[in-house]
Inverse folding.
């Protein structure tokens, strides 16, 4: 056994204990402190610890981490809202962020409090039931930082852990905020501010560490991912994804072997790329942290590595030891990436039965157009098929797990029209997996790219350094551009259903045990589909284009669905008239929906009468004879006397008034024709009772 294997076995036994303890009051001594009487048990964000994060799937009312659980399936077991009643969803509240541009956040919801971000990395804490703002933290990102944005000044959300809210800011800071107040607890700079790094991704919490990457490959940076101590903000490890200057010592064996796959160029002067700008997942049992890496810097391999080679670890899925950041295995989705085909797209962990074998898999639909199923324990390739039109490769070789390139598509000898494009067959907009339907729901798009080598390329730090002719790329992008929701069977590797949209760049997806898929659209709608067959069941206008993914949660037994709406991002900014089809306003908003209360049945009406005295005989007499003038429940409307407030002499004369008609002159005639003395006593008793309960 290696040290890592021993540690792994130990961790696994701890995990099993933790799971048993969380289950049903076991005798496990580790669970004992939890059950101590009168111990001030933390609640809300303060109670989110490693055990809660590992067991997040059982925490059905909450949405505890970015993809709801470490497996990032974005599946909720909540089913009160289901395919049979989703058409009665109504908006319960709306919140305006007061900010324009891309809103890409997945909210985190903990015990009735919602934490999210708007553009410019602004953090909000809202009451999840009412939408009332509890606090807001504006990191005051300098607006000149926008020149470091390849793809808008977006932020995809926060992480919540042990009473704190963590956010990466666009200008490269990592901040820990008090979850109760929003006060800054610590803040640290994660990047060299003289370079064009930016943070748009949501941090993840793994074993007491905050894991954060960054972006900027288009501008010439070297990718890396870092782990900071959640408690103090101290840097614990940093793993670079591409080799640096080979004249200097390599940071690791993994980077030394990677350097052998870069040939003939001086990539380190242009950064190399491979930024970890969005997707991560964690398997606590295998003790592996998965990160997706981005494209090369520059895009074209003919400049950064003219001698060929795979250029590891660009466009790769990396499995890291979460305690050290060391590489355990890698799988490269686009060897020698030449088109900005990142592997930073959302990764989902699931257990699938494939060829009669139960497999622990990792699934990804990266920009390059192939849907990959990988063994997440070993990195072994299982299968891949194209989920959108792919022209750059004919297929992925099942023996080698490598895409087989189509000649001419590498645009070495002239213009090439390529599908998909740098916008991706699927971009960062999260997909979801429903273990009940066995389907993955992908915000897919068909966009054509036009690539031509920039012969006059010269690296200019801080500029958009793609090495391709951006004039040609930008002009021809609008030729083919459409989007659709795609339901994909990851075992059979084939499409099951699709729903077409008017344009690309639609929102991320959410799927639930209610046989539902939710998605916001570029043209400003929030839509629900039946998960198994794709029938559209419900939609509502959002007032602005949606790119973020929805979440669902419950408070006091009521299920809510929330979407953050706010149009923006790479395609919205750069797509020209193809994007402008999503003709919508741009202010950001948070919209929350719940089922409309059903029309009450007769039985429900009975239970609505909360005052038990209202159902007795005296109340019936009062309401039959008196209430139409003296008011419901004895409460006068101000025209005639409020009988609860009668003076003693009136109370004494009550029977004479009601039965003998001594106040007929005032318009109060005798009721002797209907009532006897006993009835009047009952009515008086009712009024006294109402007077008492009003005090
Ligand atoms: Ca890119």
């Amino acid at each position: 056994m290696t040290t890592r294997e021993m540690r792994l076995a130990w961790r696994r036994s701890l995990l099993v204990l933790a799971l048993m303890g969380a289950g049903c009051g076991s005798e496990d001594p580790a669970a004992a402190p939890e059950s101590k009487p009168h111990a001030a048990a933390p609640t809300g964000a303060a109670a989110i610890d490693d055990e809660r994060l590992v067991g997040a799937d059982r925490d059905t009312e909450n949405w505890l981490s970015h993809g709801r659980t470490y497996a990032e399936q974005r599946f909720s077991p909540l089913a009160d809202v289901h395919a049979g009643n989703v058409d009665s969803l109504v908006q319960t509240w709306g919140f305006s962020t007061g900010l324009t541009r891309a809103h890409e956040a997945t909210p985190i919801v903990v015990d009735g409090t919602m934490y999210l971000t708007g553009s410019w990395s602004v953090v909000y804490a809202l009451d999840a039931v009412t939408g009332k703002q509890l606090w807001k933290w504006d990191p005051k990102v300098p607006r000149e930082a926008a020149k470091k944005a390849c793809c808008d000044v977006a932020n995809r959300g926060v992480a919540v852990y042990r009473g704190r809210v963590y956010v990466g800011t666009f200008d490269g800071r990592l901040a820990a905020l008090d979850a109760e107040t929003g006060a800054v607890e610590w803040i640290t700079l994660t990047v060299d501010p003289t370079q064009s790094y930016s943070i748009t991704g949501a941090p993840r919490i793994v074993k007491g560490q905050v894991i954060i990457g960054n972006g900027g490959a288009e501008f010439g940076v070297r990718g890396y991912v870092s782990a900071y101590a959640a408690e103090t903000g101290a840097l614990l490890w940093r793993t670079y994804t591409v080799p640096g200057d080979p004249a200097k010592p390599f940071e690791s064996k993994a980077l030394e072997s990677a350097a052998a796959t870069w040939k003939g160029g001086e990539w380190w002067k242009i950064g190399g790329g491979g930024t970890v700008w969005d997707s991560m997942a964690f398997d606590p049992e295998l003790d592996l942290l998965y990160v997706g890496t981005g494209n090369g810097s520059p895009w074209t391999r003919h400049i950064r590595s003219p001698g060929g080679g795979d250029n590891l670890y660009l466009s790769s899925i990396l499995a890291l030891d979460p305690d050290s950041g060391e590489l355990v295995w890698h799988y490269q989705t686009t060897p020698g990436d030449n088109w900005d085909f990142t592997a930073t797209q959302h990764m989902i962990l699931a257990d699938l039965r494939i060829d009669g074998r139960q497999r622990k898999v990792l699934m990804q639909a990266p920009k390059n157009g192939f849907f990959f199923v990988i063994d997440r324990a070993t990195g072994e390739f299982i299968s891949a098929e194209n989920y959108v039109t792919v022209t750059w490769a004919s297929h992925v070789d099942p023996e080698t797990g490598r895409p087989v390139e189509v000649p001419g598509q590498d645009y070495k000898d002239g213009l090439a029209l390529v599908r998909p494009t740098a916008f991706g067959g699927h971009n960062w907009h999260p997909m979801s997996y429903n273990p009940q339907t066995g389907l993955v729901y992908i915000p897919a798009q068909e966009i054509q790219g036009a690539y031509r080598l920039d012969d006059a390329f010269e690296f200019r730090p801080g500029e958009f350094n793609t090495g391709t002719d951006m004039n040609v790329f930008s002009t021809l992008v609008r030729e083919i551009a459409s989007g659709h929701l795609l339901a994909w069977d990851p075992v059979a590797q084939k499409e099951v259903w699709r729903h077409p949209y008017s344009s690309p760049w639609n929102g991320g997806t959410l799927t639930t045990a209610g046989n539902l898929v939710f998605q916001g659209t570029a043209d400003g709608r929030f839509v629900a589909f039946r998960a198994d067959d794709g029938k559209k069941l419900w939609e509502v206008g959002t007032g602005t284009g949606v790119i973020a993914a929805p979440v669902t949660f419950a408070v006091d037994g009521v299920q809510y669905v929330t979407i953050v709406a706010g149009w923006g991002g790479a395609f919205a900014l750069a797509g020209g008239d193809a994007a402008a089809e999503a003709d919508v306003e741009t202010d950001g908003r948070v919209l929350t929906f719940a089922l409309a209360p059903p029309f009450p049945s007769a039985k429900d009406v009975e239970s609505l009468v909360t005052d038990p005295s209202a159902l007795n005989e005296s109340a019936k007499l009062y309401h039959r004879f008196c209430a139409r003038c003296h008011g419901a429940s004895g409460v006068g409307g101000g025209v005639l006397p409020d009988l609860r407030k009668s003076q003693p002499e009136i109370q004494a004369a009550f029977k004479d008034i009601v039965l003998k008609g001594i106040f007929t002159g005032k318009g109060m005639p005798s009721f002797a024709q209907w009532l006897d003395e006993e009835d009047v006593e009952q009515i008086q008793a009712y009024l006294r009772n109402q007077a008492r309960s009003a005090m």
